[in-house]
Design brief:
disordered C terminus; 24% strand; binds 2-oxoglutaric acid; Jelly Rolls
């Protein structure tokens, strides 16, 4: 699947894309059905919320479940990443961030490159983060917030936060966030199950607590161009995979998931928050 020229233009302008209907409800239902068993596994790849102990993020899923193994190779994800990168990509990180009903905690304001560079020695901010909503994401269950255009103002200063949540993250200070929001505003990325997000390594984003009675499972795969591979190996493999061989796109057989004769996915502008 290739992004249209309009989508490419919006990605470069805003730093992200929201693509509604990239996956269908049957596919997201089947992926969701695998989660309880994966979350029940006793593994360091399941990272729990600080307060509730619920799973916050379950990593390395493509090595733990065959359906997720297919998903990281799905052409609907791999091909746009290759198109934007202009070269083959490897699978850097695979996870579901569940943000559980009532107890899913905040993701602080950050951009992914600050962590990728500082922790893993990734040279350039060329990785891409692709999300698939495994259930509906609304204004109530902790959607991602993006600051449009924040990728164009150079990487903001970032510092390591090991206190706020259970997941150490290089975060952007409120005064820098305020400056960026002054220029670009805030967009809340909502949509029905099957919606995809694509965003770059220097886009500043966050998400609030989930106070609603609805879980918010979102699948995320980070693809990094092979020429931009990690140079430091201090974090576990499930956080940044060591296998930097190019991922090969998997095209679905007719009759599985979205059919060839269905409407193409419809790009959407997320609503302003
Ligand atoms: O799942 C979320 O709410 C935030 C995820 C995120 O910040 C990321 O994937 O970089």
């Amino acid at each position: 699947m290739q992004l249209s020229s309009n989508q490419l233009e919006r990605f470069h302008r805003d730093g992200f894309l929201v693509i509604e209907g990239l996956f269908d409800r049957d596919e997201t239902r089947r992926l969701r059905a695998r989660l309880p068993a994966l979350f029940a596994e006793d593994t360091p790849a399941n990272i729990r919320e600080k307060s509730s102990g619920e799973v916050r993020t379950a990593m390395g899923l493509h090595e733990r479940d065959s359906l997720y193994g297919e998903l990281v190779r799905d052409a609907r994800l791999v091909e746009p990443a290759e198109q934007l990168s202009g070269e083959p990509v490897y699978v850097q990180q695979v996870k579901v961030n569940v943000k559980s009903a009532f107890s899913g905690e905040v993701w602080q304001w950050h951009y992914d490159f600050a962590t990728h560079h500082s922790e893993d020695g990734v040279p350039e901010p060329h990785a891409l983060n692709l999300h698939v909503f495994l259930d509906d994401v609304t204004e109530f269950n902790g959607p991602l917030y993006f600051i449009p255009g924040s990728h164009r103002h150079g990487p903001a200063p970032a510092s390591l936060d090991t206190v706020t949540t259970s997941y150490p993250l290089w975060v952007v200070a409120p005064e820098h966030v305020a400056e960026l929001v002054e220029r670009g505003g805030i967009v809340s990325a909502t949509g029905p199950a099957g919606t995809a997000l694509v965003f770059g390594d220097t886009l500043v984003h966050a998400s609030p607590n989930n106070l609603s009675p609805w879980d918010r499972p979102i699948f995320s795969v980070i693809y990094n161009p092979v020429s931009n591979a990690l140079t430091r190996h201090q974090r576990p493999d499930h956080v940044h995979h060591r296998d930097t061989r190019p991922v090969r796109a998997l095209h679905r057989r007719q009759g599985h998931g979205r059919r060839g004769n269905r409407e193409p996915p419809r790009p959407l502008e997320a609503g302003r928050a």
